[in-house]
Design brief:
mainly alpha; 83% helix; 0% strand
Length: 256
């Protein structure tokens, strides 16, 4: 798993050289602008509504009753901290949701970018096929919805876990780790679909090669440290890096 993780990280550096050499900038920037717009819009919606959401969460979990009951105790302090971590959890959940919205609406562009990358890397001739593009887009949407649904289940569990003092405070970190895995999962499936791997087989392969998915997702996350520019380049780079990492893993016999 560690070797796969390293390959996924290195593939981002290779992706830059690959994109530059074959002038794929247009297919990086177009979905990047869409993603950046969704991200900024999502952040605005989160800031404007999170007070109401967290209030509903606190009322639902009856946290206020506990705070009133233990007003002068350390337990009250722990619950206040839990509220802070609940805010963080909601923020990362919102961030995660908008990434999957991008994967759904940007699936035709991502499918085409992955096809171009695979055709260059595999030295295959590319021919535009509308039917195939629709099928690839449908598959990408299916994978995105599957992963979003699974993350949704975890998120609900984490919301309740946030009410547990100390132990519940690590839930935002766990959510980030899962988010990295599932975003990398979606990116890798583009690569496997290009190699005529069925959706069920792709899910099985990625499940058994988590290092590639986690590594891809972590760098995707880290690119968000760079405002605007990093947000624009993150999605396209993740697609190209995922395909390059699959090729490298196959070359080193990590994937058979």
């Amino acid at each position: 798993m560690l070797k796969e993780f390293i390959i996924a990280i290195q593939s981002y550096f290779e992706a830059y050289r690959f994109i530059k050499k074959y002038q794929l900038w247009k297919w990086i920037i177009i979905p990047g602008i869409l993603y950046c717009t969704l991200l900024i819009s999502g952040y605005y919606l989160f800031v404007s509504s999170y007070n109401e959401v967290t209030k509903w969460m606190i009322d639902t979990l009856k946290i206020k009753n506990w705070l009133d009951k233990f007003e002068d105790s350390w337990l009250s302090f722990f619950f206040i901290l839990s509220k802070v971590f609940l805010d963080l959890l909601l923020f990362f959940a919102c961030f995660s949701m908008y990434k999957f919205v991008l994967l759904i609406f940007g699936s035709p562009i991502f499918s085409y970018l992955s096809e171009r990358t695979e055709s260059i890397k595999g030295e295959k001739k590319i021919s535009f096929n509308k039917t195939q593009l629709i099928a690839d887009s449908y598959r990408a949407v299916s994978i995105a919805l599957r992963n979003l649904g699974r993350q949704g289940v975890y998120f609900i569990a984490f919301v309740f876990a946030c009410a547990i003092p100390v132990a519940g405070w690590i839930t935002p970190l766990i959510l980030i780790a899962l988010d990295c895995y599932y975003i990398g999962f979606s990116m890798l499936d583009y690569g496997f679909s290009r190699n005529d791997v069925s959706q069920s087989k792709s899910i099985d392969l990625i499940t058994h090669h988590r290092g590639l998915a986690i590594g891809n997702g972590i760098v995707f996350y880290l690119l968000h440290i760079i405002p605007i520019i990093g947000w624009i380049f993150a999605p396209g780079y993740a697609i190209v890096a995922a395909i390059l990492s699959i090729h490298k893993a196959k070359k080193e016999s990590l994937i058979i």
